[in-house]
Amino acid sequence: MIAALRGGLARWDSASSTAWIDVQGVTYEVLIPAFACEWIESRGAGDELHLYTYYHVSERNPTPLLIGFQHQVEREFFRKFIEVPDVGPAKAVRALTRPVSEIARWIEAQDTKALQQLPGIGARLSQTIVATLSGRLLQEALLRPDAARAASAPAVPDLREDAVAALTTLQYTAREADRLVVEALRARPDIESLEELLRVVLERQAAT
Hints:
Layout: E1 4-13, E2 18-23, E3 26-31, H1 37-41, E4 48-56, E5 65-69, H2 72-81, H3 89-95, H4 100-108, H5 112-115, H6 123-133, H7 138-141, H8 159-168, H9 174-187, H10 194-207
Antiparallel strand pairs: 1-2, 1-4, 2-3, 4-5
């Protein structure tokens, strides 16, 4: 299993969404999901990249595929996404044109219409995605766009307000969200980041 690569960008082919990464003289061809293409395109030849990777090979598809991600949370989301029947790695790479957090919110909200905006995702497959993954993507759904960039973010004065706003995107009422956030902060006053606070809220909910 190849879990990550660190090396120089040798080539980027936007037509096939593949990057060539030179790791100490060995060049790996890596598929890049559509949502991360802008990040790759902003880098120049020779720039060092650190990619979290998913290696896939199967009896039906014996040609190995190596899929790369900027953040580990995106890799973990991808692993869950390809568990959906009829969603293989190649289709997932093409379909994931929106940020992971946005797609996760659609799934948790059971918004099949929104999922059909993704390339290759029709009405039936969108229903299958919701049936397979709903309830398993709460942490991904609550990520802010910048939350994937770091395990935690600096504490901010409006941490409670941000957490309440994030929870309301998952159909919690504002009153219920505020109550859950207050209880989590009382139980864990050392919390310093939004991601950690949301994780504590979800863990406490799962335990009830």
